[in-house]
Amino acid sequence: MYKTLTFMDMALDKILNVECSTYDFKESVEKKKTKSWLKSVSAFANTKGGSLFFGIDDSGDIIGLERAQADAEFISQEIKAHLDPIPDFELIPHKSEDKVIIEVKVPEGRQTPYYYYLDGNRSAFIRVGNESVQAAQHQLLSLVLKGTNSTFDAQKTSARRADNSFTILANTFTGRVGQPFGEKMLESMGLVTSDGYLTQAGVLFSDDCNAYNSKLVGTRWAGLTKTDAINDHEYQGNLLLLLRAGVDFVNSNTNSGWIKLPDGRKNLPDYAERAILEAIVNHLIHRAYTIIGGEVHIDIFDDRIEFNSPGGMFDGTLIQNRDISKVPSVRRNPILADVFTHLGYMEKRGSGLRKICDLSAQLDGYNAELHPEFMSEANVFYTTIKNVNYPPKDEIRGVKVGSKVGSKVGSKVGSSDTHPVDIYGTSKRLSREDLINLISKFCIEWRSPDDISVYTGKNLRYIKEKILSTMSSKGILERLYPDTPNHPKQKYRSKR
């Protein structure tokens, strides 16, 4: 019930001392288009909770409500009438000077999914970054599982234990842990049910795993863009075999640099081997296996390796907006994570991202520009690890790691003498200010993000997320499609 004001002369920055994914602003209570704000209530309850503020515009300015008491009663009635089940919520009035706003505080719900329904139609919403979006089919399934206090990897299948073997898992466990793998461990790990059926996790670790969604695709690209593939392979099956295949593919398609010393030689690897392992493990464990047709991808370029997998952040946030040192461990597939933990491939509390960064920073040739990058969208997660020996230095010699690629690949990988940026008489190691100036001069005519990425030698996502967005907001660049920043044919030009 709406009662007396609880916070006098409230400072907005104190109320909003939280991530943008956990609040929304509404200038007024839209009574004819209630879905415009009820979807946020559904999304908060379905994800990690949040607050909806009425009487504040999109820029954060306090407008206030003229009929706060009546608005509060209407908000309460609409939530009860159009949300199923009805989530817990609290109406909190705030006052700043002579203006009153209403906060609808919605905690994370336990009975997910929370649907918005009208005229017989039902939709569930989730938070993705600072938006409330309708849940896709695989996301809806995750909400259903969450509401039953279960996960995808714990689901019972029709596959019988008697018809499946776990030799690969057992041998891996014995080899890494130094102890025999007993039959009872299958049930204690959550791979087999008490009545002798495999769980989804059990299927993924079985010897003859034929799960359609247990795939890994590796591609070695010539140069810095996805233009010409010089080696590619698709793997399917047991997660442990996928892990080994992924590591082998990277080793077979990258160089190991070294320099000669008076008393021998010093190895200068392009990438930290353990960081590569951590990245692959992370993407195998945390991907959304409910996305049909999805697989883990490893794309190797001259200057970087990009990993991506189906499923964004499990809590709906965007990793690029988070401090990775403070991201709590929220596991989409806890059984898979526990098995990999037992095998020593990961730590109990998900520190994989921090470890990737720490291990990369230990390499000779590392600098701040080579810091690994992480980015997520609603349905995909990206990891980028950069080659610390790119562009190749004259004093560094490179040798091919592995023997599976062939002479054609060996002649191309890491052997280019000229970097795209060098063609234009510039250096790859640019300051942010110099990079912006370079792009401004380059964009005297319309240029695509791909063109700019190749020209500067910088990661495409870094260019789009960190540079082009900044230059556009500051009025340095104009967009070909100004009303659709993420238009697939978007181009940029320096303002004249």
Explain briefly what this protein structure is.
This protein has 496 residues and is of the alpha+beta class.
Features:
496 residues; alpha+beta; Methyltransferase, Cobalt-precorrin-4 Transmethylase, Domain 2; Heat Shock Protein 90; four-stranded mixed beta sheet; disordered N terminus
Describe this structure as you would to a colleague:
This protein is α+β, with helices and mostly antiparallel strands. The chain contains 16 helices and 21 strands. The strands form 6 sheets. It has a 6-stranded mixed beta sheet with strand order 12-11-15-16-18-17, with helices on one face. A hairpin with a 7-residue loop joins strand 11 and strand 12 (229-236). The radius of gyration is 26 Å and the shape is flat.
In CATH terms, what is the architecture of the largest domain?
A: 2-Layer Sandwich
Strand count: 21
**Spatial order of the strands in the main sheet?**
12-11-15-16-18-17
- Number of domains as seen in the coordinates: 4
Classify the secondary structure makeup into a structural class: alpha+beta
Rg is: 26 Å
| Quaternary structure classification | single chain
- Low-confidence segments, given as residue ranges, are 1-11, 402-428
Can you give the mean pLDDT? Answer: 84
CATH class of the largest domain: Alpha Beta
